[in-house]
Amino acid sequence: MSEQLGTGQLQKVTVAEKFAAIHDYWNPRIVGELNGQHVKLAKIHGAFDWHHHEHEDELFLVHRGSFRMELRDRTVELSAGDIFIVPRGVEHRPVADEEAEILMFEPVSTLNTGNVVSERTVRTLTRL
């Protein structure tokens, strides 16, 4: 049940239920919005495209599993419960050897592949 308040909705989001509805990789879904930010969930596996975001920082929270954030000068290992923020302009590539579940906070304007357009670019996000 959700209660209407102004133009937004007050509702609880059960993250595990939302992840259970995701059956593909590298396709972020919106589960919330606040202050011009999308709260997104995605399942990841394998290596993503090298890219950067010219104007947006990205926050990654590992919900389940682990992955590494490859940067041009180092690699950061991330496990369940870890948060990592990639500052705008920093080239990066997430890589997951096994399936991982991640939560991201990003400005609404953020394109998942940043400055790169590829078959993994998602221009219109689905809301769960």
Record the SSE blueprint.
Blueprint lengths: L2 E3 L2 E3 L4 H6 L8 E6 L2 E11 L10 E7 L1 E6 L3 E5 L3 E4 L5 E16 L18 E2 L1
Parallel strand pairs: 3-10
Antiparallel strand pairs: 1-2, 3-4, 4-9, 5-8, 5-9, 6-7, 6-9
How would you describe what is shown here?
This protein is mainly beta. It has one domain (3-127): Sandwich (Jelly Rolls). Helix content is 5%, strand content 49%. It contains 1 helix and 10 strands. The strands form 2 sheets. Strands 3, 4, 5, 6, 7, 8, 9 and 10 form an 8-stranded mixed β-sheet that branches. A hairpin with a 2-residue loop joins strand 1 (3-5) and strand 2. It is globular and about 40 Å long. The model is unreliable at 1-7 (pLDDT under 50).
What is the strand content? over 45%
Radius of gyration: 15 Å
Count of domains: 1
Q: According to CATH, what is the topology? A: Jelly Rolls
Intertermini distance: 15 Å
The coarse overall form would be globular
Instruction: Summarize the helix and strand pattern as letters.
Output: EEHEEEEEEEE
Question: How many helix segments?
Answer: 1
CATH class: Mainly Beta
Structural class, from helix and strand content?
mainly beta
The whole-number mean of residue pLDDT values reads 89
CATH superfamily, by name, is Jelly Rolls
Percent in helix: under 10%
Largest sheet: 8 strands, mixed
CATH architecture: Sandwich
Poorly predicted runs are 1-7
